[in-house]
Each structure stands twice: as C-alpha cells, then as structure tokens.
Design brief:
The complex is a heterodimer.
Chain A (H helix, E strand, L loop, with lengths): L1 E8 L4 H12 L5 E4 L7 H8 L6 E6 L4 E5 L3 H8 L1
Parallel strand pairs in A: 1-2
Antiparallel strand pairs in A: 1-3, 3-4
Chain B lengths: L5 E7 L3 H12 L4 E5 L5 H4 L3 E2 L9 E2 H14 L3 E4 L2 E7 L2 E6 L2 E10 L3 E3 L15 E2 L2 H4 L7 E5 L3 H10 L5 E5 L8 H12 L3 E4 L2 E8 L5 E8 L2 E6 L2 E4 L3 E3 L29 E3 L11 H19 L11
Parallel strand pairs in B: 1-2, 1-8, 2-5, 8-19, 10-17, 11-12, 11-17, 12-13
Antiparallel strand pairs in B: 3-4, 6-7, 7-8, 9-18, 14-15, 15-16
Helix pairs in contact in B: 1-3, 1-7, 5-6
The chains are: A alpha+beta, B alpha/beta.
Chain lengths: 82, 318
Amino acid sequence: MVKNITIFTTNTCAYCAMVKRYLDTKSHQYEVVNLDEHPERQAEALQLSGSLTVPITVVTKEDDSKSVVVGYNLAKLVPALG
Amino acid sequence: MADKKVHDVVIVGAGPAALTAAIYTTREDIDTVLFERGVVGGLAAVTDQIDNYPGFAEGVTGLDLSEQLQKQAERFGAVIEYGEVTAIHDEGKTKRLETTSGDFHARAVLIATGSDYKKLGIPGEKEFYARGVHYCATCDGAFYRDKKLVVVGGGNSAVQETIFLTRFASHIDLLVRSTLKASDVLQHDLQKYVDAGKVTVHLGTTTDEIIGDDKNFVTKVIGTKDGKKTEFATDGVFVFVGLDPNSQFFKDTLRCDNIGFVLTDEHLQTSMPGVFAAGDIRSGATMQIASAAGEGATAALKLREYLEGRPLPVQDLV
C-alpha cells in the first residue's frame, strides 16, 4: 500500500503535468514540491534521483520503503504504485 | 488492456495535429482513440513560449496550449490511452495496432507521432544525460540558477530556449555549427541578451565532446572554431540541433523518405490505404504548430471521406 507520494516539479514542466494527471486519474493523493518556489530543495531532489531533471516522483510504501521514478515513465511509475 | 472493439479511428500521438484531428472527428461522432507514449502536446508542450500560433495576441505557453487542446478534444469524447503503439498491420477493412496495452483495431488510422529532438552523437552526451546534458529547457532549466550554460544549435528551438534559460543562467555560450537559422524575430530578441552580456553567440563552432568531473557532472564542452579546439567551461549543456522522426513502429511497414518521415499523397494518405499522416511526422511538413493543427483538420476530413466509403485510392506519394 502507498503511504504517500511526493512529486518534485517546476512551473513549466510538461512531463510533471503528465505525472500529476496520471496520479489524478488513479485517485492518488500527492504532495508537490515546486522547485521554482523552493530552490533550496534542489539538492534533496538531486540526492534522491541522481539527476538534474524533473519530474521526480517519490513513492513511499507503508513499510517506509521508497521508489524514486525519474521523468514521466509509466513503465516504472505503475509498478512503484502497485 | 486489449480492445476487441473496432474503433472508427485510432490516432497515434497526441500533439497538436493529433488533438486537432480528434476535435474534428469526435465532433462528428466518429469514435476516436488516441495513443500517447510521452507527453500530451508533444514537443509543443515542452516549449516555453509560443508566439506564432494564431489566436493568442500575447502568445501562449506550450503547456497551456496543450492542456487546452486536450480539454477541447476530450469535451467532444476523445479518449487518450497512455501507451505505445509498436506495430501496425493491414487486415483489409480494418487495421490492427499492436500496443503496450494489447491489440487495438480501427477502420482507419492517423499517424501523428511527431518528432523528437535529435542527439549530437558525441562523446559524453549519453554518459552525462540528466547530469548536465539536457534536451528540455522548461523541465530542467531551474537546476541552473546563477550557473553557466552551453546551448547547442542555431534554429528556432535553440534560440527560443536560450532566451528562456537566461532567466536562470548567469551566462550562456550558444554554439552554432554554421549560422543562425532562427527567425528574424527570435534573432532580434536574442540580440537583447547578447547586448546585455548574458549570451555569447559562437558561429561556425562545432561541438565535439562533453567532459565531466569525478562526480559525473558536466564541467566543460570541447568545440572547434576555425580549426582550433576551444574549451567552454560550463555547468550544463542543452541540445537543440534539429528533429528526428518518431517512426520506429512503422518505418518498415509504411513508405518513408530517407530520413524516416512518412510519405503521403494529396489526401495525406500513406502507402497503406486507410492510414493517414499529419504534422511533423509527415515528409515535407513545415514543423510549425499552426500547420500541424491545419494538417490535423485536413486529415480528419479525409478520414471521414474514407470511413464513408468514398474511394481514396493512394495517389503519388511525396
């Protein structure tokens, strides 16, 4: 079971909108960290993903295990939510 | 999941050509399903600002335009499946599409898969992808606040995205292999940033190699100008050097030009009867959002003629 979902985004990122749209269609709740509004959290995004890119979606399960999905990548996002 | 229903139309892609076609077909109650493997809106969606699409006096962001096109198509009943088409088969009166969600069947198909940014194919490009090498300024530009950047390319996209990146970067070196090919309007806009010292344009400069540090982040780009190797110290590289067709799933089935763009006749029909093409993926397309939308509308009218049983024999392909 999914405990929570965090998405790192920017204002202009179309792929971020796609991730949010997909999670909306599956009725998942999520927290958004907008890096344009919170640039101080860029280092956290980089540490989680190893990449200088968004979207970064962090799926935390009930057992606190985390899956990190970089980009709009349903092949990885769907199993992470499963 | 596989769908045994025979749809009137399956549209492959969900960019401006595809969504415009879907607006037209669904308004006429033609059952229409779109397949999108990436982002709805295609390359238009990841473009910062679009100033040459009619109807927006102050311009529109690519994301807003894409969202409006999607809502408009869905308002009339278009259904977007998030998956990838991997093959197309002509089964006479219907076409069978192999997809990541199983087989789909349609009486007619519109290919509107568009194109994607071309890669440079130089050492370091693949190795440092997303660790200093990028193809989407609107996605990744925010990581380069007060940092130095290199942008590669001299066309509309390169100049448009360079201007966008000036809101983050302290300085941008724009490496142009020959001369600037961007529109006069964009070049005029760029000049303001050149005059302000934010951008330096290096004409006649090839981009040869991308170098990184021991933490696997980009530190410099090696180029050649006038036969001399030149180093550009940088924190990141954004590449906009043209477009490659998204033709992987049909390039061995439909006739294409030598680059991979699909050939069509005067009805926008491909070499497979009942399969049409519109937008950037079509050989000879002008790669403009407005013309993609126009082709989408034309294709929808031709699809309707085909579905109504009017003969549309494949003409000379161009």
